[in-house]
Amino acid sequence: MVDPTGVIAISVRPARTHGRVGSASERVAARVRGLLAEYEPPSFEEVPTPDAALFLAAIDNSSGYERPHRVEGEGPFEGSALIWAQALAFERRRPGLLSAEALAEVGEREVAAILTVEGDAVSNPAERARLWRDAAEALSEDYSGSAEELIVASEGTLGGPGGLLSRLAAIEAFADPLQKKSFLIAKIWERRGWLAVVDPSSWEVSADSVLMRLALRSGLVAPSDDVEAVRAATRDAFREVADLAEIPPPVLDDLLWERGREDPDLVGSEAGDLREPPRRPGVHFY
């Protein structure tokens, strides 16, 4: 979760040009290998359709919830995990809710009703409704309203012209230059068996606030007040870690996000008590 008031603390080492630092990659890779011994990545079996994954990834950014909640006896969930749990609960009660047809004209009040949990309201429901309408329009115009058709059109490729990443980038919610949400949805689709990736070298981690904090505190990335520079360096650094640890970037991404939410020192604290820089106002990419 992002602390919108968070600032970077003073580093215990001198600031330097933004980027990866020394032998930190090897050190973090060794820690990752140890963590993997008892880690099983999620199957995402709770996600019922490719469409549901796309529409939830589209609004997977700072939730604004004030506290964790249980949903249908499971949890507690917080942050973006609570958005997914609550929306999927609605989808189970109303199959087809998370589809282009159902969300083509969705409004602020409907989004607020779907995502409010025990009186705790999601932030910016009007913006999330707009992103849903835009995604529904793009699917309807180019892929017969179906995420499955988008997957088929990509022919299993992530990168390059006509690949999944460039196709998703035509949808506003997935237009992030660092493709955080696009890699998230591709990971879910692959794990569920809906996507067979033929160019696995195109995988990257989904750089977000959790991974930035881990990268900064472990010394993988030097501090900067430029949030996009930190995001880019974080993605590059953890790709190097994935290569060194011989682990697919999507699995590393899951490990870091699931464990790192509660433990900011999961892969080290050599650089001190650092935090990711605050996001730019209006950003909905992470």
Briefly say what this structure is.
The chain has 286 residues and is mainly α.
Give the CA-based shape: globular
- Proportion in helices: 40-55%
- CATH topology group of the largest domain: Endonuclease Iii, domain 2
User: What Rg is obtained from the alpha carbons, in whole angstroms?
Assistant: 19 Å
Task: Average the pLDDT over all residues and give the rounded result.
Answer: 90
DSSP strand count: 2
Structural class: mainly alpha
Query: How would you characterize the largest beta sheet?
Result: 2 strands, antiparallel
Which residue ranges are poorly predicted, with pLDDT under 50 across at least 5 consecutive positions?
1-22
- What are the secondary-structure elements, in order, as H or E? HHEEHHHHHHHHHH
The CATH class designation of the largest domain is Mainly Alpha
Report the span from N to C terminus. Answer: 10 Å
Proper CATH architecture of the largest domain: Orthogonal Bundle
What secondary-structure arrangement, pairings included, does this model have?
Layout: H1 24-36, H2 50-58, E1 69-71, E2 74-77, H3 79-93, H4 100-103, H5 108-115, H6 125-142, H7 147-154, H8 164-168, H9 180-191, H10 209-218, H11 227-245, H12 249-260
Antiparallel strand pairs: 1-2
Question: Could you name the key traits of this structure?
Answer:
2% strand, disordered N terminus, two-stranded antiparallel sheet, 286 residues, 47% helix, single chain, Endonuclease Iii, domain 2, 2 domains, mainly alpha
Describe this structure as you would to a colleague.
With 286 residues, this protein is an all-alpha fold. The protein has 2 domains: 1-43 and 200-286, Endonuclease Iii, domain 2, CATH 1.10.1670; 50-154, no CATH class. The protein has helices spanning 24-36, 50-58, 79-93, 100-103, 108-115, 125-142, 147-154, 164-168, 180-191, 209-218, 227-245, 249-260, and strands at residues 69-71, 74-77. It has a two-stranded antiparallel sheet. Helix 2 (50-58) runs antiparallel to helix 9 (180-191). The protein is globular and about 50 Å long. The chain starts with 23 loop residues before the first helix and ends in a 26-residue tail after the last helix. Mean pLDDT is 90; it is low at 1-22.
